[in-house]
Design brief:
By secondary structure, the protein is an alpha/beta fold. 47% of the residues lie in helices and 15% in strands. It folds into two domains: 5-158, Rossmann fold (3-Layer(aba) Sandwich); 165-280, N-(1-d-carboxylethyl)-l-norvaline Dehydrogenase, domain 2 (Orthogonal Bundle), CATH 1.10.1040.
Amino acid sequence: MDIKRKCGIAGSSGMVGGSIQRYFEKKDNYQLFLYDKGKGVGSPSILNEADFIYVCVPTPFEDGKCDTSIVEEVIGGLKGEKVVIIKSTIIPGTTERLQKKYPQHKILFSPEFLTEETADQDMEYPDRQIIGYTDKSFDVSGEIKLQLPLAPFVRIMPATEAEMVKYAGNCWFGTKVAFANQIYDLCKKISIDYKMVLEGMAADKRIGRTHLKIMHKGFRGFGGKCLPKDLKALISFAKTNNVFVSILKSVDAYNDVLIEKQGLDPLDTGSRLEFLQDKEERYTSSKEVKHKKK
């Protein structure tokens, strides 16, 4: 009889935690222990029954920096000795700091590369799998690699480098969106078809097709739960290290103006759009009811 690995998921109701849960549920040799404080799922004591803890909780941009308080609340509540795999996006150096603060655990960072529309597919069939380790957790990094899905690109690297991979990637996506919007405005000004320009650019594999569309979920610019907060957090992090990131600051300022012109909050476009979509659905439903009454 195979011994089941006991895996806990903190933040199991979110996009990332939910995808990890559904992935492991398909595996026979895993027993899951779920906890999501915000959704009233499970409890810290249930989470503590696991040996491996996947941390998938929010890290919002608060008070001018990446707020890791929820991550630290989860790790601080763990008893005994655990293997902790942080999936939440955290500023470079955070895993090492937490490893020193909680030396009884083995802490790793493994960035997620999911999109909201295809999260489960992205989880099961990733393009890359990165495991970031500390000196203390290096000996379990191979085990975590085996727990997660195979990918064409797999790397085990120091945690701080892995943390920067995640931030650099998200900031690049934001930069690409901003660039595309400016090219779109120029195309519109001189009365040429941006779609044709997009097709021509995207045919170059060095450029690619992603993040070049102008309208996304009903608005221009980049929003949602990740790109705006991560860009702002990395700019803040660079400032604390006396590095002037002029390109990123320009992208951030441009996107804020673009989003605000549409009546949205750069850090809350997801919630605002959900409200607008719900309002539109209720309006449509109301019209249908009135039409039936006639």
